[in-house]
Write a structure and sequence with these properties.
With about 575 residues, this protein is of the alpha+beta class. It has three domains: about 5-140, Creatinase/prolidase N-terminal domain (Creatine Amidinohydrolase, Chain A, domain 1); about 155-290, Creatinase/prolidase N-terminal domain (Creatine Amidinohydrolase, Chain A, domain 1, 3-Layer(aba) Sandwich), CATH 3.40.350.10; about 295-580, Creatine Amidinohydrolase. Helices cover about 35% and strands about 20% of the residues. It contains 18 helices and 28 strands. The strands form eight sheets. It has a six-stranded mixed β-sheet. β18 (about 390-395) and β19 (about 395-400) form a beta hairpin. α13 packs across α14 (about 335-345) and α15 (about 410-430) packs antiparallel against α16 (about 445-450). It is globular and about 70 Å long.
């Protein structure tokens, strides 16, 4: 029997002994993080599915994985032989987990669903309706004998241009204005931003697994390595054991008053604790999310510097790739990713990659979140398209860039897809829009050229990016899903439309954009985007007739900006090469 099928049967044995009808296993952690540490990759351990977004539901006669359009091809491959059925989300006919559970329960309130309450958000738990929900923290420990421990990486401070005291003072004012007395921050990026600290507890994310309680008088940080945290002398911050949160909250219950917490990152186990112990809680989105999304002047300046250094590494990589293939050298996807990683590692304040590099040639690029094999990866040939989606974590910022480049002769379809995606990228990047506009209101700018030609992509067009924090940051985004959060000056978003053809090729062009002031007139206040990413777009396979004159002008101006910014740091053959790559499109 398949090893994953065996693990599911072990779980079913537990279900029978406990009288449970279903078990939900989510792909998150006690803080509802998008990317969990290895300890909480429970979906991967049970199913073999390695995608970044996926939840399992196990009943006595069915096992299903719910994931979105980015992972359909991957899921079909990885679930083979497990007995797990793929349930597709972000499609018109989707049936999400709460609806599916409701259909199984048929209105029976005694239908019992078990969850690991630490790894299910309070918001998700409340969506499950009128079933009986039981919380079993760490339920897989019985079977997962070599389960990793909670990581404890070194903690260090940064200086992002705003002190910890200033941030705490601001948050206390927000609490007072909203009639609250205290707040429990449970999202790891909120906590890192508030305290101006970073760590590496989650791969590619500079975060420390912890909780943060702020009242009118106290700041209490619940973290695993109290001694390490204490050595950085966080003035005015009491450092307490991670596991002591509930006990400490109980001891302070009378002084907490009205406690603000965010049900989207609050886990179900904690929400049950609050309910059972009579805490006065208010469930609202964390105010920190929007505040940290708007970068201050120092953060913006430093992010521009990190993007400049990152761009030099990218151009050196693309030059090496092209010239090595011309020489007939054998390069596979993994070797290409490793070379780019080496280029970034030579940058002075490099702290690691911001996510696992997607190095994909040909049909591999048709998977938006392709995982490059560590051994035996496909060899790059001098034809077709190669896609590389990568980024770096620097003390001065976070980068995220995708370039799709021709390695040689391309088919007419590859050229057309390449051009249409770049056209969509340009149309969003060159947008001017009124203040108060949300990302969902301009998402169609990037999709319009694709839609007109009967093409589309299943992922969002853009996500927020943090300052030496998460490569994916909210609350802003650019996607079709309704999100009323306006784009504000100082926010950073990605611009990454794509086209994916299963078994053939994939195209994605991505820059990070800074939201900036444009102008004001009698019709209001206007905003625009400034590209932070500085790396040329290859024009050699464009179909010029698909671009209008304004789009050509934007592309020429952008490539010229790339050359002017990077040329002082390059010399010799690579400088001459970059001059050719950034030549104006006629």
């Amino acid at each position: 029997m398949n090893v994953y099928a065996q693990r599911i049967e072990q779980l079913r044995s537990m279900m029978r002994s406990k009288g449970w009808d279903a078990v939900i296993v989510t792909g998150s952690d006690p803080h509802n993080s998008e990317y969990p540490a290895s300890r909480w990759k429970q979906v991967e351990w049970l199913s073999g599915f390695t995608g970044e977004a996926g939840d399992l539901v196990i009943t006595l006669d069915h096992a299903g994985l719910w994931t979105d359009t980015r992972y359909f091809i991957q899921a079909n491959n990885q679930l083979e032989g497990t007995g797990i059925v793929l349930h597709k989300t972000r499609v018109p006919e989707q049936v999400l987990i709460p609806e599916w559970i409701e259909s199984q329960a048929c209105g029976n309130a005694d239908y019992i669903v078990a969850v690991d309450g630490l790894c299910v958000s309070a918001a998700f738990a409340s969506s499950l309706g009128s079933i009986t929900l039981v919380s079993i923290p760490d339920m897989l420990d019985l079977f997962w004998k070599d389960r990793p421990q909670i990581p404890q990486t070194p903690i260090f401070e940064i200086n992002p241009g705003e002190s910890r005291e200033e941030k705490v003072s601001w948050l206390r004012e927000v609490l007072s204005e909203n009639g609250c007395d205290s707040i429990l921050l449970t999202a790891l990026d909120d906590i890192a931003w508030m305290l101006n600290v970073r760590a590496a507890d989650i791969e590619y994310n500079p975060l420390a697994i912890s909780y943060l309680l702020i009242t009118a008088e106290r700041v209490e940080w619940f973290v695993l390595r109290q001694e390490t945290a204490a050595t950085i002398e966080l003035e005015g911050v009491d450092v307490l054991p991670y596991a002591s949160l509930q006990m400490q909250l109980n001891s302070e219950a009378d002084s907490l008053g009205c406690l603000w917490t965010d049900e989207n990152s609050l886990n179900y186990e904690l929400s049950r604790f609050f309910a059972e112990n009579g805490f006065d809680t208010v469930l609202r989105p964390s105010p920190v999310q929007l505040r940290k999304a708007v970068k201050n002047e120092l953060e913006i300046r430093m992010m521009k510097e990190s993007h400049l250094r990152d761009a030099i590494a990218m151009e050196k990589f693309l030059y090496w790739l092209e010239k090595s293939l011309e020489k007939g050298e054998r390069i596979d996807e993994k070797a290409a990713a490793d070379y780019l990683g080496d280029m970034r590692s030579r940058i002075g304040d490099y702290m690691g990659d911001s996510f696992q590099t997607i190095s994909a040639y040909g049909k591999g690029a048709a998977l938006p979140h392709y995982v490059t094999p560590s051994s035996g990866s496909p060899v790059l040939e001098r034809q077709g398209l190669y896609l590389c989606d990568s980024g770096g974590q620097y003390l001065s910022g976070t980068t995220d860039i995708t370039r799709t480049v021709p390695l040689g002769e391309c088919t007419p379809l590859e050229k057309e897809d390449y051009t249409l995606v770049l056209k969509g990228h340009i149309d969003l990047a060159s947008a001017v829009f009124p203040s108060g506009t949300a990302g969902c209101q301009i998402d169609a700018l990037a999709r319009g050229p694709l839609w007109k030609n009967g093409r589309n992509f299943g992922h969002g067009t853009g996500h927020g990016v943090g300052f030496f924090l998460g490569c994916h940051e909210g609350p802003q985004d650019v996607r079709q899903n309704f999100n009323a959060t306006p784009l504000l000056p100082g926010m950073v978003i990605s611009d990454e439309p794509g086209i994916y053809r299963e078994g053939l090729h994939g195209v994605r062009h991505e820059n990070l954009l800074l939201v900036c002031e444009a102008f004001s007139n009698e019709f209001g206040h206007w905003l625009k985007f400034e590209p932070l990413t500085l790396c040329h777009f290859d024009t050699s396979i464009l179909v010029p007739g698909l671009l209008d004159e304004e789009e050509k002008q934007w592309l020429n101006n952008y490539n010229e900006t790339v050359y002017n910014n990077l040329s002082p740091y390059l010399e010799g053959d690579i400088l001459e090469w970059l001059r050719e790559k950034t030549a104006a499109l006629q």
